[in-house]
Amino acid sequence: MNRNIAVVGLGYVGLPVAVAFGKKHEVIGFDVNEERIKELKGGHDRTNEVEEKELKKADIKFTSNKNDLRDSDFIIIAVPTPINKNNQPDLTPLLKASETVGSALEKGTIVVYESTVYPGATEEDCVPVLEKHSNLVCGKDFYVGYSPERINPGDKEHTFETITKVVSGQTPEVLEVVAKVYGSVVKAGVHRATNIKVAEAAKVIENTQRDVNIALMNELAVIFNKIGIDTRDVLNAAGTKWNFLKFSPGLVGGHCIGVDPYYLTHKAQELGHHPEVILAGRRINDGMSKHIASSIIKEMLKKNISILDNTATILGLTFKENTPDLRNTKIIEVINELREYGLNVSVSDAEADSAEAKKYYDIELKDLDDLDYTDVLIFAVPHRDYVEKKRDYLNKVNENGIIFDLKGIVEETDLKYNQTIWRL
Question: Could you tell me the pTM of the whole model?
Answer without folding.
Answer: 0.92
